[in-house]
């Protein structure tokens, strides 16, 4: 036996063919991969590749959502504005209604006061007329000779002419504002009668009731002007013609008529002649 028979060889043991082949294959694959990668890298370096991301659906959806959001915002703003306008209109209407109500109350109060004043004056006038009637009645009872002695048959001169004129107009119609000769109202008849004797009287009853000297109803003479109401604010006039009678343009239903003093007792009289 050789003295080296038990000494291990310093050479590595041989690998099996299969392992070598496997490693060769792996190495070859790696080299191939590196080669492909290198080629791709070279191509990449030679010509840059541009990649485009197309997102048509996502972009359209986002645009729609943005538009819808804008529409909603605009609609909300319009609604707020409309509501503000309605609130302002309601406030203005409420303010106007309050002012109208206050004005209506003010007018109603004024009308009420006017009606009360009219009623008060009417009552005072009725009381005055009633008092004058009582006085006239008492005077007529106490001195019946007055009316007898002042009959139209005893009127002379201007008084007779005035009495004659008014009696000649009896039967003609009463028309408010008329001044003769086919129609009269109360004051125009008196004015026309005194014009016959050259006396110019005012046109209206109020002024005619103060045109002469005030006389008592118990001392009447033909040609005296009778008035109804108070002196200076009379609402009717006529001419005393004697015998307790007067002639006046009374109203549309009676026209110019001759009536007794008892028909509608006057409240006063003035003497112009």
Main attributes of the structure:
2 domains, rod-shaped, 6 helices, six-stranded antiparallel β-sheet, alpha+beta
CA distance, first residue to last residue: 204 Å
Strand content: 5-15%
Structural class: alpha+beta
How many structural units, i.e. domains?
Answer: 2
- Which spans of ≥5 residues are poorly predicted at pLDDT below 50? 30-46, 139-153
**Tally of alpha and pi helices:** 6
CATH A-level architecture of the largest domain: Alpha-Beta Complex
Number of extended strands = 6
In the CATH hierarchy, what is the class of the largest domain? Alpha Beta
Helix content: 40-55%
What does this structure look like?
- By secondary structure, the protein is α+β, with helices and mostly antiparallel strands.
- It has two domains: 72-142; 145-271, endopeptidase fold (from Nostoc punctiforme) (Alpha-Beta Complex), CATH 3.90.1720.
- Helices cover 54% and strands 10% of the residues.
- The protein is built from six helices and six strands.
- A six-stranded antiparallel beta sheet has the order 1-6-2-3-4-5.
- The protein is rod-shaped and about 125 Å long.
- It starts with 16 loop residues before the first helix and ends with a strand.
- Residues 30-46 and 139-153 have low confidence and may be disordered.
């Amino acid at each position: 036996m050789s003295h080296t028979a038990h000494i291990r060889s310093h050479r590595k043991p041989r690998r099996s063919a299969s392992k070598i082949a496997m490693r060769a294959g792996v190495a070859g694959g790696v080299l191939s991969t590196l080669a492909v990668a290198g080629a791709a890298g070279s191509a990449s370096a030679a010509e840059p590749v541009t990649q485009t991301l197309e997102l048509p659906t996502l972009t359209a959806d986002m645009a729609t959502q943005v538009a819808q959001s804008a529409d909603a915002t605009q609609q909300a703003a319009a609604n707020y504005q409309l509501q503000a306008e309605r609130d302002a209109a309601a406030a203005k209407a409420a303010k106007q209604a309050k002012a109208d109500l206050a004005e209506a109350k003010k007018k109603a109060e004024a009308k009420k006061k006017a009606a009360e004043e009219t009623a008060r004056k009417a009552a005072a006038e009725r009381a005055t007329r009633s008092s004058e009637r009582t006085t006239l009645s008492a005077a007529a009872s106490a001195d019946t000779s007055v009316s007898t002695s002042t009959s139209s048959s005893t009127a002379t001169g201007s008084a007779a002419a005035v009495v004659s004129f008014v009696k000649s107009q009896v039967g003609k119609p009463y028309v408010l504002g008329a001044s003769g000769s086919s129609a009269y109202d109360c004051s125009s008849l008196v004015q026309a009668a005194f014009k016959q004797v050259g006396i110019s009287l005012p046109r209206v009853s109020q002024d005619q009731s103060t045109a002469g000297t005030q006389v008592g109803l118990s001392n009447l003479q033909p040609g005296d002007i009778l008035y109804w109401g108070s002196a200076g604010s009379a609402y009717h006039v006529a001419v005393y013609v004697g015998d307790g009678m007067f002639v006046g343009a009374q109203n549309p239903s009676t026209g110019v008529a001759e009536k007794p003093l008892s028909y509608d007792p006057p409240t006063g009289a003035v003497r112009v002649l």
